[in-house]
Amino acid sequence: GEDVEQSLFLSVREGDSSVINCTYTDSSSTYLYWYKQEPGAGLQLLTYIFSNMDMKQDQRLTVLLNKKDKHLSLRIADTQTGDSAIYFCAESQGGSYIPTFGRGTSLIVHP
Amino acid sequence: DGGITQSPKYLFRKEGQNVTLSCEQNLNHDAMYWYRQDPGQGLRLIYYSQIVNDFQKGDIAEGYSVSREKKESFPLTVTSAQKNPTAFYLCASSSPAGGVPKSYNEQFFGPGTRLTVL
Are A96 and B105 within 8 A, CB to CB? Predict the structure, then answer.
């Protein structure tokens, strides 16, 4: 089975909060990442969290980590149409290890 | 400006032809990677290189080849042996590579090349 799982689609109304969820299986995961991919482009790192943290906040983005359940979430407050993109969850054991990516969640923001 | 470039953005080839995708970075990164992206399948690792003149197969290396003669460049050749080559190809680079990890491994991605085999 997959090492990192995400749901494929999420649709929200502009101004609402979006929550994108991710589960992973590797208990030795040290770093967990969220990447954003806009249409026809490469990926950009949005944020990351170290495994000894429960939460990380960066402006409109909040990352929650439940290490016991191996569950990671990304909350986007006040979602805008410019947030429409594919969001990838990824995990790695450390800086020298190649991240394993999930399949990506397509976020659709409608007026 | 520092960054990672891929060319061309769109590429069309006839079935049975080899084709080489370019990837260049001026970020002074040691590690470079090639991924393939298909709809609903996320990113799959084709090849990676952690240092010049060395590279390793990823999860789906069959039908592909790479070289790493220079730190800045990591070209990918899609050979005629690749059964279903039509896809979006992404190149990435990162640092540090190897050794004791000291920090997170942010990968910097190029804009991608969309390859269509007719």
Answer: yes
- Picking from A43, A48, A56 by the largest number of B CB atoms within 10 A of its own CB, the best residue to mutate is A43
- Write out pLDDT tens, residues B28-49: 998 999 999 998 788 999 999 9
CA A79 to the chain's CA centroid: 15
- B7-30 per-position pLDDT tens digit: 999 999 998 899 999 999 999 998
Q: How is residue A55 written in tokens?
A: 């939460």
Q: What does the angle CA B73 – CA B92 – CA B54 come to, to the nearest 5 degrees? A: 50
Distance CA B60, CA A102 (A): 16
Rounded distance, CA A49 to CA A65, Å? Answer: 8
Check if A20 contacts B (Cβ < 8 Å): no
Taking the C-alpha atoms of residue B5 and residue B22, their distance in angstroms, rounded to an integer, is 8
The dihedral region occupied by A60, where left means phi > 0, alpha psi between -120 and 50, and beta the remainder, is alpha
Contacts of B107 in chain A (CB under 8 A): 43, 45, 99
Phi, psi torsion values for A81, nearest 5 degrees: -60, -30
